[in-house]
Amino acid sequence: MTATKLPADCETKDDVRAEIDRIDHALIELFAERHAYVTRMAEIKTDPHEAYVPARIEAIVAKVRERALALDLDEDQAELLWRTLIDWNINYEKGIITARTRKK
Fold first, then answer.
1. Average pLDDT over residues 25-34
2. Residue 96, in any domain of the structure
């Protein structure tokens, strides 16, 4: 993703908003791509309890914090965002797995 204008080159609120909109568009595409993999994972797993793996969660969060720090992003905010995303994914996976296993 290449910025049309770097933050320092934005001279108006409209310039900044246009860049934020561009980034939001890219983010939603990435979230949709990630969601497809989460859905596939839920199709592969056989037990709803497999959706919650504390060691995997902590490993992901540690990587996110490390990447955020390297990018000069508040690592606490990045962690909060990822934990929210992970919690949502866990509940989503559990729902798919539970629905599938009840049909059998």
1. 97
2. yes
